[in-house]
Specification:
The chain has 754 residues and is an alpha/beta fold. 39% of the residues lie in helices and 17% in strands. It folds into 4 domains: 11-229, 3-Layer(aba) Sandwich (Rossmann fold); 242-441, Rossmann fold; 485-586, no CATH class; 670-746, no CATH class. It contains 27 helices and 23 strands. Helix 19 (540-554) crosses helix 20 and helix 25 (675-681) runs antiparallel to helix 26. The longest helix is centred in the middle third of the chain and has 24 residues, at 445-468. The model is unreliable at 725-732 and 748-754 (pLDDT under 50).
């Protein structure tokens, strides 16, 4: 008989399992639950549970909530910003719903609500739901959907997953709305990184999470944390492995023809366009690098999971490993692949997984199906052969190797990245960035330095590659003393895209740009006020307008290396959500003199080394340095050699970057150009002209005055410099033909000639 219904995973009833849960909590998880027991004696509270990557946040929270909320017939609202997090939460409640935790009820009703087509909508929420797992944006767009569900409830458990995002506007709106509806809200935030934020944002967190546990007692005020343990402590307890990061550069370039749809596919969906994925999968050089990297350090790497780009890639890599005498298998989901037609059953996957568990298979290549739910504790290494923009997915991939010895795993874990050169800027996640700027997994100062250098190195790929490309004019960059091209620090932050995708971003700061960035960060509130921008997700056009205003206000004059507009846009996106500037991390562990290629070149020049002696000296620096700094910074020896050659050429021919005397270029008078174009030719002149226009406008009270409407103000961010007549008429100098206008009178984007 044909069914007149279908089974869906978006809602249902979970029945208590008989018997005892085979998974025994670790000591830190027991301690976390005991702390929650203490804070739970209060009628209402807001607190955080802080466990590092791999520490079992979801498991700990779901176990405790089953006993203290579900079994007491109290409703739970679990909110997260990514589909993957919602699914993890639902799976955890289903997996650990044993009768020993919920002895007083036979079953409970759950519902998952998100924008995904396979899950419910907000209109599907029923008052009878006991566990509501919902995406932040679905709820934020329709808060009234909770009214019936909350009606009559005196107490509710509200859980915010990835709680360091709680300071975002939508989360704050949701929390306040629920507190208005329910008298006793028990708010629990789950996070691995509560303090990887600016000091101002910590202040916002403290306003949201006010209650914690200290010395076995509930306390109030400051940032409320019931329980916290760090990555370093779990490593010392051998529950987690110590991560060891390595990077290898493929020399492959992708994204040359990446259009808007391709960019959107990657940045918002974390899906590589098929043509690019195909290029990566078919790259013989890239695949050979991956296999040879493992072969070179097979003993250190041990059993390894490789995350491939697609099914074709998984098949190619598996075949190459086996060809080199390294037993490998590939596993893919139980779905027929649209490109290859390959379909592997769950039974076939399980057979291969068992071969890996027994040690017969050394390398297991997969396409994103080994991120969660499969127990492979003997894994010592993960190869990241596919890039991702998702910090959550990156965390899961890394987590496959973080099982420590006390948990049946290994003492250390290798996280090996294969890094391509992308012609279009995409905020790929650097695995090091997940551990923040505090290097909390190690006490070793050298490892701190190496961590910081890996962060820098990935940001420098495009610059070093462009110097090798004869079609790109890099003379301005090459003229700068090399030590000035080494960042002094970075702004590191994570924000949420409108679809819930998490974007991890690092902005490198140089001597040339540091002061400008400091001024920008201080002025961000005024910047947003001047554009009347209060949205959590401002339109791209508005962000571009604000970024242009920031450029004209803060980033004038010659800056080499220059600032990047895309960096400003990402900072603006972060501020729009959290209303605070991102945190600045100073690279104070790095001895920049050890990376100064100019100084190395000067030593070679002063010693008058011949080619043979020079080669031996350079090889000794590259291959035998104990701290390995040059290799970490440059990645490729070719990049190092090229920069060294440039510095030596500057010493042998000091005038090499002077204009060629036998070439007479065409001339266009600067007064015929808009200010922005003047800046491309002579940035110092542009700065002088803009500054001069503002000074001419300032009155004795210090106010600037709009030349059209007379509006006054003391802050430059409210005004734009504009041309008032065609520059090549009237016999006036360029400085006499400038005026300032308020934003309303300026009206159009950029400089203009009337």
């Amino acid at each position: 008989m044909a069914k007149d219904y279908i089974e869906v995973k978006s809602f249902g009833r979970i029945t208590a399992k008989k018997g005892a849960n085979a998974r025994i909590p670790y000591e830190h998880q027991k301690a976390a639950m005991e702390s929650l027991d203490i804070i739970n004696k209060s009628k209402k509270y807001s607190t955080m549970l802080v466990l590092p990557t791999g520490g079992g946040k979801t498991y700990t929270a779901s176990m405790w909530l089953l006993k203290n909320a579900i079994d007491r017939k109290k409703k739970i609202l679990w909110i997260a910003h990514r589909q993957m997090l919602l699914e993890q939460a639902a799976e955890s409640f289903q997996k650990y719903a044993y009768s020993e935790l919920i002895p007083h009820i036979p079953s409970f009703q759950y519902r998952i609500v998100s924008g995904a087509s396979n899950y419910d909508r907000t209109i599907d929420i029923q008052a009878s739901d006991d566990l509501l797992i919902i995406s932040k944006d679905s709820l934020g767009r329709n808060l009234s959907c909770l009214d019936q569900w909350l009606d009559g409830e005196k107490e509710i458990f509200l859980v915010i997953d990835e709680a360091h995002h709680s300071t975002a506007k939508t989360y704050r709106k949701v929390i306040e709305y629920i507190k208005e509806q329910v008298e006793d809200v028990k708010l629990i935030g789950l996070t691995a990184t509560p303090f990887r934020t600016a000091d101002e944002e910590q202040g916002l967190l403290a306003k949201i999470y006010e209650d914690g546990v200290r010395n076995g007692k509930a306390v109030h005020g400051n940032i409320g944390i019931s329980y916290q343990i760090g990555l370093k402590e779990l490593i010392s307890r051998r529950i987690l492995s110590k991560p060891i990061f390595e990077s290898y550069y493929t020399d492959e370039m992708y994204g040359d023809t990446l259009g808007l749809n391709g960019w959107e596919s990657i940045q918002r969906l974390d899906v590589l366009p098929e043509d690019i994925a195909g290029q990566m999968a078919d790259s013989a050089a890239r695949n050979k690098l991956i296999v040879n990297t493992y072969k070179t350090k097979e003993k250190e790497y041990g059993q390894t999971i490789v995350f491939a780009v697609n099914v074709v890639h998984a098949i190619h890599l598996s075949a190459l490993f086996n060809k080199e005498g390294i037993r490998a298998e590939f596993v893919v989901s139980d779905v027929k692949d649209s490109v290859t037609g390959v379909r592997i059953s769950r039974e076939e996957n399980e057979r291969k997984l068992e071969e890996y568990r027994t040690g017969n298979v050394k390398v297991l290549v997969n396409v994103n199906i080994l991120t969660e739910g499969v127990d492979l504790p003997q894994t010592k290494t993960v190869f990241l052969a596919r890039p991702t923009v998702s910090t959550i997915l990156m965390t899961q991939m890394i987590g496959r190797a973080l099982r420590g010895e006390a948990a049946g795993g290994t003492s250390s874990a290798y996280i090996v990245s294969f890094i391509d050169h992308w012609n279009e800027h995409i905020a790929w996640v650097n695995p090091d960035s997940l551990f923040g700027g505090n290097n909390e997994f190690t006490d070793n100062p050298l490892e701190h330095v190496q961590h910081e250098l890996r962060m820098i190195a990935i940001s420098k790929i495009e610059e070093f590659a462009s110097v090798l490309d004869d079609s790109v004019d890099t003379k301005v960059l090459e003229k700068v003393p090399f030590i000035k091209r080494i960042p002094v620090g970075m702004y590191a932050f994570t924000y949420l895209e409108e679809n819930g995708a998490d974007c991890s971003y690092q902005v490198m700061v140089y001597d040339s740009t540091r002061k400008a960035y400091e001024e920008l960060m201080t002025a961000l509130p005024k910047v947003f006020a001047s554009f009347e921008c209060n949205e959590e997700y401002p339109p791209e056009e508005l962000l571009e307008d604000i970024a242009e205003q920031c450029r004209d206000t803060f980033f004038l004059g010659e800056m080499v290396p220059p600032y990047e507009e895309k960096d400003i846009v990402n900072i603006l996106k972060y501020y729009a959500q959290y209303e605070t500037a991102p945190k600045f991390y100073l690279f104070d562990d790095i001895d920049r003199s050890k990376l100064d290629v100019g100084a190395i070149a000067k030593h070679i020049w002063d010693e008058d080394m011949g080619q043979r002696k020079k080669t031996e000296y350079i090889n000794s620096l590259w291959d035998h340095a104990d701290d390995n700094l040059l290799r970490l910074f440059f990645g490729r020896k070719l990049y190092f050699w090229r920069q060294l050659d440039i510095e030596l050429t500057k010493l042998s021919n000091p005038h090499i970057y002077d204009e060629e005397e036998n070439v007479q270029h065409g001339i266009r008078k600067l007064e015929e150009l808009p200010l922005f174009e003047i800046g491309k030719v002579n940035p110092e002149l542009e700065k002088k002209l803009r500054d001069g226009a503002f000074e001419k406008s300032r009155d004795v009270q210090g106010n600037f005055t709009c030349a059209r409407c007379g509006r006054k103000g003391t802050d430059r961010i409210f005004f734009q410099v504009d041309h008032i007549i065609p520059m090549n008429k009237g016999g006036k100098t360029v400085g006499e033909n400038l005026q300032i206008l308020c934003r309303e009178c300026n009206g159009i984007k950029g400089d203009k000639i009337d």
